[in-house]
Amino acid sequence: GGGGGHGGGGGGAAWGAGGGGGWGGGGGDWGGGWGSDYSNGGAAAAGAMMAMMMMKGAGKGGAWGWSDDGYGKWPKNGKKGGQIACMQAVDHLEPATDAEVEAFLAEHSVEEHAARRLRDLHPKQQTGVLKRGSMLDARDQTAVVVKRIADMQFVKAGDWVCPGCFDVQFSKNHVCRKCGAANPIGRPGHFEGELAAAEFIAPATTEEVEAFLAEHTVQEKASERLRALHPKLQGAVIKKGDLNDARDKTAVLLRRMMDVTLLKDGDWICPACYSHQYRKAKTCRKCQAPSPLAGQEEAPASITASAASKTDGLA
User: Where is this region: Disordered (predicted)?
Assistant: First the structure.
């Protein structure tokens, strides 16, 4: 804690391994405030087991310490790096509202300690829990929500939460293992490369995107991912044609989106048939249209030749 804003006090042992209780103890909305989830009595054994599995020991300090100015300070023996990694993993997500959290809890039967822990999460982490879907089919809804909360809180530096399906991904994953969505935080400069490849593609309008989705029956995760793309990349996906002949429309759409988000520097998207082309290709492999980048690559050479000619004349 101690970060200002919502940073709470420090103190207790993680997951209630005795004494001050679970999840950092102390007060504050997001800094601590998980005081006695599994402490003492018969629940102490559960707390100890979770501590062994999740944290391999008791942690001190007051959790988030979050404020409008950024992250607060943790004690020297706290897990500052881990807490920052947790927030970086969800930084691109929209924060959940109190109303959304309460609606989710009203829909499901979870024990009070799990409900309290969900309320005490940072709003962006709450989104990572809520948007993973309904738990109505789960035999033990409390266990499921506790697992989801743990997924949001125990991530390593560079790990990320998928903006498409909200599954937790390792830092090495360039795309989500579950739905194919691109890593939104782990590839510096890559987004600029994607847009450079689609420089000559007309951006899609919101109306065009919605009309395309209305025409085809695809899973919601695919619809949300298409809506989240840059308009130029949306244009490249939509203008490749309809999905009416596809047996699995969702799979085809996900594949198209993966194609436009896994481009290397210098790759380009054909402005005629919208297929992905490698940098070395001077014409489209599919429709033979010339690369729109060819003129740009040749310009420096022609300028150099012109300059050399003038130099020769002076000599």
Answer: 291-315
Residues 197 and 263: beta-carbon distance below 8 Å:
yes
Q: What is the DSSP letter of 179?
A: T
| Stronger pLDDT, 49 or 242, i.e. the higher one | 242
pTM, 2 dp: 0.42
Overall size of the chain counted in residues: 315
How is the chain split into domains, by residue range? 14-89, 98-161, 194-277
Beta-bridged to residue 268, according to DSSP, are 277
Percent of the residues in the chain that have a pLDDT greater than 70, as a whole number: 63
Q: Is residue 81 over pLDDT 80?
A: no
DSSP states along 244-307: TT-SSHHHHHHHHHHHHHSPPTT-EE-TTT--EE-TT-SB-TTT-PBPTTHHHHHHHHHHHHHH
Strand pairing class (70-71; 66-67): antiparallel
Specify the residue for token string 């559960």.
46
Average pLDDT, the chain: 72
| CATH number of the domain located at residue range(s) 98-161 in this protein | 1.10.8
Of 20-34, 93-107, 179-193, least confident by mean pLDDT is 20-34
pLDDT band at 296 (very low <50, low <70, confident <90, very high): low
Give the Cα separation of 165 and 181 in Å (integer): 8
Helix (H) or strand (E) segment spanning residue 161: strand 160-161
- Residue 175, φ and ψ in degrees, nearest 5: -135, 160
Mean pLDDT of 308-314: 41
Evaluate whether 137 touches 146 at the Cβ level (below 8 Å): no
Which DSSP helix (H) or strand (E) runs through 194? helix 190-197
